[in-house]
């Protein structure tokens, strides 16, 4: 059966968050992803508490970035959590939210993809017990302790270069907001191209092709689109445009958001998006419609479905419950891959 994950991206009191975690495990959700964005609670501290509050739920960092945190500190955190959680830990990395997180901190990455690639190599090497240098004139360093439970490393990705990077260097990928149209199939093809170019022999069957998607099971999808309209507009603007076209976003909307520069511009453009544009980014509707879209992703290579909640904690829990009870039984088995489930 397909693996189901949940990520709640909203400020939540820690005690309420941990109660949500326990309820997700009781529902039969397979994995929890804890975000490292928007200056929410520290994901590594939450991951430790979430792991201690549960017994079977996989706990994922989804996602952090070597542009925000030093690779040595990422490796230390992963090694520590690996000893605490054992095989339940998943570790996601990406370029980070440049506009909303990195730039406000005064971080202006010139080559974020190169920094991610370097960070992935360094973290993997350190977790394997290897030594590394952070400069030609600096001494070699290594982790003071590392366990046998090296976590599977995921890359959060949307664009073709990052997707290929995931195939070359990671154990799994979280493909963001590309469930609609032929966009997911195109993303999977990019990841497989990276896998084919990989120096080590890694089978596609051991690689987790994860869909990372805002999902709402509702009788009123238009209301969901309205609630998420600015977020949808930002996702379309972030692109890449080719992926948005494949998902079904109109050329007019892509061009409109391509010209948007300020928050007011984006808000005005969001008001002009059609429901078809919005449905290309957010999966919303009756359980049967949601099952159809997610089934299409599975038929095109998805081995896990990871739903993102951006509203209230209760909304995230409600979506998870309906997903498990009303959608999951209608989904086909994954066509490829068995990793990290």
UniProtKB/TrEMBL annotation:
Oxidoreductase in keyword set: yes
SUPFAM superfamilies for the chain: Bacterial luciferase-like
Record keywords, A-Z: Oxidoreductase
Gene Ontology molecular function, alphabetical: oxidoreductase activity, acting on paired donors, with incorporation or reduction of molecular oxygen
InterPro entries in the cross-refs: F420-G6PD/mer, Luciferase-like_dom, Luciferase-like_sf
Pfam families attached to this UniProt entry: Bac_luciferase (PF00296)
Domain Luciferase-like, residue spans: 14-301
Coiled coil spans: none
Domain of life: Bacteria
Protein name: LLM class flavin-dependent oxidoreductase
Organism field: Georgenia thermotolerans
């Amino acid at each position: 059966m397909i693996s189901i994950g949940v990520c709640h991206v909203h400020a939540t009191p820690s005690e309420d968050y941990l109660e949500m975690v326990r309820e997700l495990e009781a529902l039969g959700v397979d994995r929890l992803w804890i975000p490292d964005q928007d200056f929410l609670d520290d994901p590594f501290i939450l991951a430790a508490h979430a792991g201690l509050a549960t017994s079977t739920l996989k706990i994922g960092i989804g996602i952090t970035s070597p542009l925000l945190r030093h690779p040595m500190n990422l490796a230390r955190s992963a090694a520590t959590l690996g000893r605490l959680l054992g095989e339940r830990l998943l570790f996601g990395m990406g370029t980070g939210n440049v506009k909303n997180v990195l730039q406000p901190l005064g971080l202006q990455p010139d080559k974020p993809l190169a920094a991610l690639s370097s960070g992935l190599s360094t973290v993997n090497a350190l977790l394997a017990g290897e030594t590394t240098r952070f400069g030609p004139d600096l001494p070699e360093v290594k982790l003071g302790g590392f366990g046998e439970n090296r976590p599977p490393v995921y890359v959060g990705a949307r664009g073709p270069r990052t997707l290929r990077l995931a195939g070359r260097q990671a154990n799994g990928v979280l493909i963001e907001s590309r469930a609609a149209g032929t966009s997911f199939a195109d993303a999977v093809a990019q990841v497989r191209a990276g896998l084919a170019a990989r120096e080590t022999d890694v089978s596609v069957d051991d690689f987790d092709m994860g869909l990372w998607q805002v999902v709402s099971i509702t009788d009123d999808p238009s209301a969901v689109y309205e609630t998420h309209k600015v977020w949808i507009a930002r996702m379309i603007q972030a692109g890449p445009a080719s992926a948005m076209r494949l998902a079904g976003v109109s050329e007019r909307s892509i061009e409109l958001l391509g010209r948007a520069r300020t928050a007011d511009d984006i808000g005005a453009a969001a008001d002009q998006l059609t429901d078809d544009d919005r449905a290309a980014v957010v999966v919303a509707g009756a359980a049967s419609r949601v099952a159809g879209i997610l089934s299409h992703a599975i038929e095109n290579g998805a081995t896990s479905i990871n739903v993102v909640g951006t509203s209230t904690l209760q909304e995230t829990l409600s979506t998870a419950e309906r997903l498990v009870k009303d959608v999951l039984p209608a989904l086909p088995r994954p066509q490829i891959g068995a990793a990290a489930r």
